[in-house]
Amino acid sequence: MIRSLRQTLSVLLILTLSACALFQGRDPVNISVIGIEPLQGQELELRMAVKLRIQNPNETPINYNGIALNLEVNGQPLAAGVSDQRGSVARYSEDILVVPVSITAFSMLRQAYGLGQARSLNGLPYELRGKLASGPQGTVRFTDRGRLNLPEPTRSVW
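Structure tokens predicted for Water stress and hypersensitive response domain-containing protein (158 residues):
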């Protein structure tokens, strides 16, 4: 009985160690927002299409079967979106994805209040968080941070 228990534990240990070798570390995926375009909205919601450039700096392709995004501006939630797109980003390659996001009226009010407190529209911090669903391979999470430089209102000379 003890001998069979030892053999079972030994086999489980070997399988566990070999499984760890299969899950090698990956370099983080580079995600950049390259464009935002308006979409038709519903009542009190604004819809936008967020264009993302996804760069895979790894030796293996990233196969995905869904994507989710959350966008914060000036420390406040602004937009969220999901898409059931399927595809693959080849090894050492890049691709462009377009994800529809929704901005609720409450998010717009929060942002308007925050912008009213700001001295300038330049340099507003943003953070984009998301994930590429990859099924059994695991989910690839990403973050993109930066500063938005919105145009200042122009003053008329007249």
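The chain has one domain: 26-149.
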